[in-house]
Design brief:
The chain has helices at 4-7, 47-52, 55-67, 135-145, 206-210, 282-291, 295-312; strands at residues 8-19, 25-37, 71-72, 75-78, 111-113, 119-121, 153-158, 161-162, 170-176, 182-190, 196-201, 225-229, 243-250, 254-263, 266-278, 332-334. With 335 residues, the protein is an alpha+beta fold. α3 (55-67) crosses α4 (135-145). The chain is globular, with a radius of gyration of 19 Å.
Length: 335
């Protein structure tokens, strides 16, 4: 198993949100998040497993996703009617030990993967609502359905559970080739209506979406703009029309994920999650838990608090909307 320093790391920073219309509204909160090797969540997503996976297996995974109601047109969505997700204990793929990643004493585990701890990451917090669909099959099926070459490594950037509670507005799966270049990014979005949606961001649809050729470009780079049509409700104070524009800046010491939402009148919302990498130790993680306690719970409480403020400012409320029709285009890349 890779050393914890290479397999996972923690970033401390803040989340920012700014609304431009019909009234200006903005806020920022301190937060922390993790980037970890997806193979820690599901052994089928380790580098070795990805390299050994056969094309036949990948085709079967894609067929499973295509036959699922979670796949809509050319974009893949997971709409939840309940908060149930995959139970890691029910799948051998998820039931592997991560004792070497535990920090602190046995009676007070500070960090754990697929196990209870003060701060933890769990496979069951991601992927499909289907209990019979492992995390690896969901993710690799998405990539195959979007014609993404098989990645050699996959990393997850996401909020952890804190004191057992989790709510993850957005999580990002970075899928790299054997040279470390990014082939695709899966933005897994969750709302407060128990819904999820997966946007697959790739370099292959700019030609269709914008009428511009990509030539031989097959990878995503830091700072590039990735755009996709919106087809899922996040804020009930926005319509389901328009598009998102994503930009990512990631290296060994910093992480920045920026999302812009554009409607038919132009730029409406700007959201960003940024952080600086910290050196991990038992003391640091314990202090982090004390400094930002109940982070996940506070995320959802703050969402409702900010919603109340928007309502008091008489911003139009649209509620949870269903996509009127399957998305007409896949995510696209610009510069």
């Amino acid at each position: 198993m890779r050393s914890p320093d290479k397999a996972w790391c923690c970033f401390v920073g803040e989340v920012r949100h700014r609304r431009l219309r019909p009234v200006e509204h903005q806020f920022s909160y301190r937060s922390f998040f993790f980037r970890l090797d997806a193979g820690l969540l599901d052994p089928a997503l380790t580098k070795k497993a990805l390299q050994l996976a056969s094309p036949v297996l990948r085709d079967e995974q894609a067929d499973t996703n295509r036959s699922s109601p979670e796949v809509i047109g050319s974009s893949t969505a997971t709409s939840l009617s309940s908060p149930e997700t995959i139970r890691s204990g029910e799948h051998p793929e998820h039931a592997h030990g991560n004792a070497s990643l535990m920090l602190g004493h046995r009676w007070l585990p500070l960090f754990g993967v697929n196990r209870t701890a003060l701060i933890s990451m769990h496979a069951e917090d991601h992927g499909s609502e289907r209990r019979d669909l492992p995390l690896s099959q969901w993710l690799l099926g998405l990539l195959n359905a979007h014609h993404v070459p098989r990645p050699s490594s996959i990393r997850l950037l996401a909020y952890p559970r804190v004191l057992g509670y989790q709510f993850k507005p957005v999580s990002f799966w970075f899928c790299d080739d054997d040279k470390g270049d990014c082939l695709a990014i899966v933005a897994e979005v969750r709302n407060t209506f128990s819904g999820r949606h997966a946007y697959v961001l790739t370099p292959h649809t700019l030609e269709r979406a914008l009428g511009e050729g990509l030539g031989s470009t097959q990878i995503l780079k830091n700072g590039q703009t990735l755009s996709t049509n919106k087809c899922f409700t996040v804020s009930p104070f926005c319509t389901i029309s328009g598009s998102y524009r994503f930009r990512f800046f990631n290296d060994e010491t910093r992480s920045l994920s920026r999302i812009e939402y554009h409607d038919d009148k132009g730029l409406l919302l700007i959201t960003s999650l940024s952080g600086e990498r910290i050196a991990l130790s038992s003391q640091r993680l314990f202090k982090l838990t004390l400094a930002i306690p109940w982070q996940s719970l506070m995320v959802i409480l703050r969402i409702h608090w900010q919603a109340l403020k928007l309502w008091l400012k008489k911003v139009p409320f649209y509620g949870a909307q269903q996509s009127p029709s399957p998305p007409q285009s896949l995510p696209s890349q610009g510069t």
